[in-house]
Amino acid sequence: MSKTLEFFFDLGSPATYLAYTQLPKICAQTDSRLIYIPILLGGVFKATGNASPATIPAKGRYMFQDLERYARRYGVPLKFNPHFPINTLMLMRAVTGMQLRHPEHFQAFIDCLFHAFWVEGRSLDDLATVASVLTRNGFDPDEVLALTGDEQVKAALKDNTDKAVQRGVFGAPSMFVGDELFFGQDRLEFVLEALG
């Protein structure tokens, strides 16, 4: 029986973007099932007392240099987003809403948003920019925006975030194979071993 990899993610994390580019390959290689679990990273930080490495200038500069090294190693594009960090509440509600209401379009939805955020460097905390990105990718911005106000969607994102914290998540990307937590896109070798 194949194993399951739970991927707790927030679009606003560049390390999460890099993990997202690699996890489907890892799961295909190990005949594992990838489960995407949207969380609100700001909520995780608040609950755990953690903060983005970018809040420490020297660490932030190093982090982005290191992420660029990994992007080259993985052979994927990565552009530092000049609008980083942004409040991702609206985006992650939209992601959760698409997963709940339109699962058949979920992958294409996160694909276009990750690309806009970490390849194009778009300002995804601006409604007009988000609407433009969604329209260009075949999504109706009004329908997506309506999802962000859906009480069930709001509750699901909060529940995902609360459960992540209860399981020991303190940042993103966080991945679980069974009860074993792996944090960071630089731990994918361990994820591969755990799934192998």
UniProtKB/TrEMBL annotation:
Highest classification ranks of the organism: Bacteria, Pseudomonadati, Pseudomonadota, Gammaproteobacteria, Pseudomonadales
Boundaries of every DSBA-like thioredoxin domain copy: 4-195
Species the sequence originates in: Pseudomonas silesiensis
First-level EC class: isomerase
UniProt name for this protein: 2-hydroxychromene-2-carboxylate isomerase
InterPro entries: DSBA-like_thioredoxin_dom, GST_Kappa/NadH, HCCAis_GSTk, NahD-like, Thioredoxin-like_sf
Superkingdom as given in the UniProt entry: Bacteria
GO biological process terms held by the UniProt record: glutathione metabolic process; naphthalene catabolic process
Gene Ontology molecular functions: 2-hydroxychromene-2-carboxylate isomerase activity; glutathione peroxidase activity; glutathione transferase activity
Pfam family, one: DSBA
Active site: S13 (nucleophile)
Cited CDD domains: DsbA_HCCA_Iso
UniProt keyword annotations, A-Z: Isomerase
UniProt similarity note: Belongs to the GST superfamily. NadH family.
Entry's EC annotation: 5.99.1.4
Catalytic activity: 2-hydroxychromene-2-carboxylate = (3E)-4-(2-hydroxyphenyl)-2-oxobut-3-enoate
